């Protein structure tokens, strides 16, 4: 759990550094409190809507629009907190190999991207406020307020980054980055660069440059979308910000913070440990029993969390020490944890499927059913790989029938959560967002029964809001890129290339999977789904492939990318918790990566048969 109090190394600091750290702590605590309050308000609004509809056959006028506006506010106020978090999606594989001076130069350029993002959000939102008229018909509030939230978020990004660098005694570096960002921000509107490259390709190349210097991926996307204006982009600055806001102004996406909240509350309530005990009673006595327990726990935890990042962090903290104690090489233990955590974004509820449904209008319920099948295939392949690669030194005695029954009863609350979500969505009783809110309420009640303290609950709401903000900002800042890809007809170009391979669905599916595997090397799954889901889905459908099954394959493919360098988000999460080098984890990942690729082949073959 993230603490609300920031700590620093015990070294001599200047009065300026001390003042900056005090200010930074105060601002971060304020933003954290706002995020926690906004998430609580969102939960209350959605739950109230459910109660009114089913209890009183009525509704709350404007509830969906109000919730959407507050979600935009959550993203805005949480964005400054995520600058240095794992979900900022910084790629340090290149910068870590540079000399000290090279690392310093890369850090300055990375800060330039972040400062430009702050400027774009601040001034772009201000220009929208001037240009935009109209009143929300349901809320009775000026429309510009929704865009103004991101303006405040941009302002706080500038302040927080500035205070961070001052507190680190990097004032010269901050000044250089500030001058570069300001000069580039002003120059873009006054220059035009002729090139044969389309604006979307230019945007992609600039974003890639930002990624290589370890800039946060959302900031790289946003700054690149603005710089692309000088290369003929049809999106002026206000439109870049407007596209970002529009990209996250979807009621469906509110399910993301609710599922994150449910997963965190599940762990705090001790239910996650009950899942571990139940999994251990079933498979703990087998060969590689603890590793198989880790896998089965991921399968069961997937039915309640929906977040692979959350599961990776939980598994690293829970299983890594015990795996090493039982004779597992540390890197192999971490690789097993990272590989099994992939299942959380495949087995329902799945945040990845929510993002895909929002990007392509596929049925959430149908995707969730497909996720069960895909998750089972992936788990089976991983179980075989673990069985073949692990020689556990310490075995666990076989659990008795009474022990298994007792552990199963203890895990019932977790199973109940999965039933509420999946059955509720599939049968159309509640919407996806409402099911996620009910899941969050369910786990909140379990946490209160488990006597989780007020301070811990506050930390959980704060951290969940921060994580949801980071994911939401990525979704929003990918929207200008997706728009330019559509304008430049990149989908048509790719479609023509794929069509050139013939009408054979086998060849088309193989080609798309190969492209997605390459995409997964450099893009986070959320961004990849948003950018490539709408492009590849029509191609697959035209080839006669079932759209829902293709959507499942796309998510599975890109989730495998969470284990591959250079981005490999799940590996970096495990590395951060265990303090193991990411390079060692990537190397140890090989057999489990192959097992997941084999599961992808099985799913592809099944898609061609149905």
From TrEMBL:
Domain Tripartite ATP-independent periplasmic transporters DctQ component, residue spans: 42-161
Transport in keyword set: yes
Pfam family, one: DctQ
GO cellular component: plasma membrane
Keyword Glycosyltransferase among record annotations: no
Segments passing through the bilayer: 30-56, 68-87, 108-132, 144-163, 175-193, 205-231, 251-273, 293-314, 335-359, 365-388, 408-429, 435-458, 470-487, 507-537, 549-577, 589-609
UniProt keyword list: Cell inner membrane, Cell membrane, Membrane, Transmembrane, Transmembrane helix, Transport
Locations listed in the record: Cell inner membrane
GO molecular function, one term: transmembrane transporter activity
Occurrences of domain TRAP C4-dicarboxylate transport system permease DctM subunit (ranges): 207-605
Bilayer disposition of the protein: Multi-pass membrane protein
Stretches of the chain forming a coiled coil according to its record: none
PANTHER family reported for this sequence: SIALIC ACID TRAP TRANSPORTER PERMEASE PROTEIN SIAT-RELATED
Protein task: Part of the tripartite ATP-independent periplasmic (TRAP) transport system.
Name of this chain's protein: Tripartite ATP-independent transporter DctM subunit
Organism: Pseudochrobactrum saccharolyticum
């Amino acid at each position: 759990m993230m603490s609300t109090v920031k700590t620093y190394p015990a070294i001599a600091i200047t009065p300026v550094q001390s003042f900056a750290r005090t200010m930074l702590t105060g601002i971060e605590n304020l933003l954290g409190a706002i995020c926690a309050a906004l998430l609580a308000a969102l939960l209350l609004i959605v739950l109230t809507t459910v109660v009114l509809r089913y209890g009183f056959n009525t509704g709350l006028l404007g509830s969906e629009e109000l919730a959407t506006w507050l979600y935009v506010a959550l993203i805005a106020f949480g964005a400054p907190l995520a600058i240095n978090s794992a979900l900022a999606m910084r790629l340090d594989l290149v910068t870590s190999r540079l000399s000290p001076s090279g690392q310093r130069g890369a850090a300055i350029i990375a800060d330039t991207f972040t400062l430009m993002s702050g400027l774009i959000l601040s001034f772009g939102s201000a220009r929208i406020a001037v240009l935009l008229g109209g009143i929300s018909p349901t809320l009775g509030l000026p429309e510009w307020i929704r865009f103004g939230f991101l303006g405040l978020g941009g302002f706080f990004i500038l302040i927080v980054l500035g205070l961070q660098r001052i507190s680190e005694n990097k004032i010269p570096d901050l000044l250089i980055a500030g001058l570069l960002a300001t000069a580039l921000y002003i120059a873009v509107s006054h220059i035009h660069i002729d090139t044969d490259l389309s604006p979307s390709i230019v945007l992609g190349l600039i974003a890639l440059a930002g990624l290589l210097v370890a800039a946060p991926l959302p900031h790289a996307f946003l700054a690149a979308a603005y710089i692309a204006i000088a290369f003929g982009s049809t999106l002026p600055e206000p439109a870049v910000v407007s596209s970002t806001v529009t990209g996250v102004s979807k009621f469906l996406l509110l399910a993301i913070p609710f599922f994150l909240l449910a997963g965190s509350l599940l762990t705090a309530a001790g239910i996650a440990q009950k899942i571990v005990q139940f999994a251990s009673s079933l498979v703990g006595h087998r060969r590689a029993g603890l590793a198989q327990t880790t896998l089965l726990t991921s399968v069961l935890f997937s039915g309640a969390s929906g977040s692979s990042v959350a599961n990776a962090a939980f598994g690293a903290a829970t299983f890594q020490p015990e795996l090493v104690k039982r004779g597992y090489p540390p890197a192999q233990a971490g690789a097993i944890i990272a590989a099994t955590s992939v299942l959380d974004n495949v087995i329902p509820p799945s945040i990845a499927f929510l993002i895909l449904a929002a990007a392509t209008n596929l049925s959430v319920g149908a995707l969730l059913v497909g996720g069960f099948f895909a998750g089972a295939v992936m788990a089976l392949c991983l179980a075989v790989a673990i069985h073949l690669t692990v020689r556990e030194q310490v075995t666990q005695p076989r659990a008795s029938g009474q022990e298994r029954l007792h552990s199963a009863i203890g895990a019932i609350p977790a199973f109940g959560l999965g039933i509420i979500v999946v059955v509720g969505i599939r049968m159309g009783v509640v919407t996806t967002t409402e099911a996620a809110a009910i899941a969050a309420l369910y786990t909140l009640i379990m946490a209160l029964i488990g006597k989780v303290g007020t301070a811990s609950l506050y930390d959980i709401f704060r951290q969940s809001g921060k994580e949801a903000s980071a994911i939401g900002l990525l979704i929003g800042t990918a929207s200008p890129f997706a728009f330019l890809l559509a304008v430049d007809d990149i989908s048509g170009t790719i479609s023509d290339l794929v069509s050139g391979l013939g009408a054979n669905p086998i060849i088309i599916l193989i080609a798309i999977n190969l492209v997605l595997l390459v995409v997964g090397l450099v893009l986070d799954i959320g961004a990849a789904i948003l950018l490539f889901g709408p492009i590849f889905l029509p191609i697959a459908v035209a080839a006669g492939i079932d759209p829902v099954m293709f959507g499942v394959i796309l998510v599975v493919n890109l989730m495998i990318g969470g284990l591959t360098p250079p981005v490999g988000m799940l590996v970096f999460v495990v590395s951060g918790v265990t303090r193991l080098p990411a390079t060692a984890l990537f190397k140890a990942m090989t057999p489990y990566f192959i097992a997941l690729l084999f599961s992808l082949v099985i799913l592809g073959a099944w898609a061609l048969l149905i």
